[in-house]
Design brief:
- With about 300 residues, this protein is mainly β.
- It has one domain: Beta-galactosidase, Chain A, domain 5.
- Helix content is about 5%, strand content about 40%.
- It has two helices and 20 strands.
- It is globular and about 55 Å long.
- Mean pLDDT is about 90; it is low at about 290-298.
- It binds 6-O-phosphono-alpha-D-glucopyranose (G6P).
- Belongs to the glucose-6-phosphate 1-epimerase family.
- One of its GO terms (cellular component) is cytoplasm.
Length: about 300
């Protein structure tokens, strides 16, 4: 487990799954949800924080649900290739995953997956993934991907998501059928499991009770999954408390509909930046013309 602090903010990253399990603001308030029943060892992924789904999101393929990266032991990457660094970033960690012989039996491709987790100015958290095809047999590979981010919310029925209205989505609760979202903002009254397609680069989660807004900025990740298991599924999950669905919401920047393909030697980059701002933030600020209102400098 790796812990780091920057300007009183904090993040915790596990080598198991390269999973961020804690992100705190300067009031020491936890911003991510982790279940009280989470299991921190193989074979299960940790229930909460930011699991990484690779090389498969969900059941979109033949591998285990969400692929294997989230339940492998990553290592510290001491000598990562340079990444453009914002000088304001005070603390970061680089991790790397390469396939084991066992992994190659289930997904026969050689890759290097580098993840940088950084704490930026104002406590903003960013995750940058770089995936490289290192196959030596000339073969390309394709994968789907998600940052399966669990946000901590006061009460799911008091939360709304802006930025996804009018988007097309695949409904996992209806056999992945395609629909178009109606209405102003997404609100929550029952189970939801949708893959929004070609979603905008900024999405906001507005928590009225906490007077807090999370702003997600995504790059290289066209889609966004929204998931809350609600009461029945919560009860069926061994590593999730019965009533915990009220205090979490997953909004997951992802590449699901169109898998990413890399030729040998090619590298893909996918980035997520998270910011928690006070709720004086109001609707409409996702308008690109007003984006300067959200100070995201990482
Ligand atoms: O229980 P897990 O394998 O971690 O998956 C939890 C959830 O992840 C995503 O949000 C999927 O869209 C859901 O269908 C799935 O139930």
């Amino acid at each position: 487990m790796l812990q780091s602090y920057s300007e009183d903010c904090m993040k915790v990253v596990y080598l198991y799954g390269a999973q961020v399990t804690s992100w705190k603001n300067d009031h020491a308030e936890e911003l991510l949800f982790v279940s009280s029943k989470a299991i921190f060892k193989p074979p299960k992924a940790i229930r909460g924080g930011i699991p990484i789904c690779f090389p498969q999101f969900g059941t979109h393929g033949n591998l285990e649900q969400h692929g294997f990266a989230r339940n492998r032991l990553w290592t510290i990457d001491d000598n990562p290739p340079p990444l453009p660094v914002n000088p304001a970033i005070k603390s970061f960690v680089d991790l790397i995953l390469r396939p084991s012989d066992e992994d190659l039996k289930i997904w026969p491709h050689s890759f290097e997956f580098r993840l940088r987790v950084a704490l930026g100015p104002n406590g903003d958290l960013s995750l940058t993934s770089r995936i490289r095809n290192t196959n030596t047999d000339g073969r390309s590979f394709s994968y789907t991907f998600a940052y399966h981010t669990y946000f901590s919310v006061s009460d799911i029925s008091e939360v709304r998501v802006e930025g996804l209205e009018t988007m097309d989505y695949l409904d996992n609760l209806k056999g992945k059928e395609r629909f178009t979202e109606q209405g102003d903002a997404i609100v929550f009254e029952s189970e939801i499991d949708k893959v929004y397609l070609a979603a905008p680069s900024k999405i906001a989660i507005i928590d009225h009770e906490k007077k807090r807004t999370f702003v997600l900025t995504k790059e290289g990740l066209p889609d966004a999954v929204v998931w809350n298991p609600w009461d029945k599924k919560a009860k069926a999950m061994q590593d999730f408390g019965d009533g915990e669905y009220k205090h979490m919401l997953c909004v997951e920047p992802a590449a699901v509909e169109k898998p990413i393909t890399l030729k040998p030697g090619e590298e893909w980059k996918g980035r997520l930046a998270l910011s928690a701002v006070p709720s004086s933030y109001c609707s409409g600020q996702l308008d690109p013309l007003k984006e300067h209102l959200i100070a995201l400098n990482i």
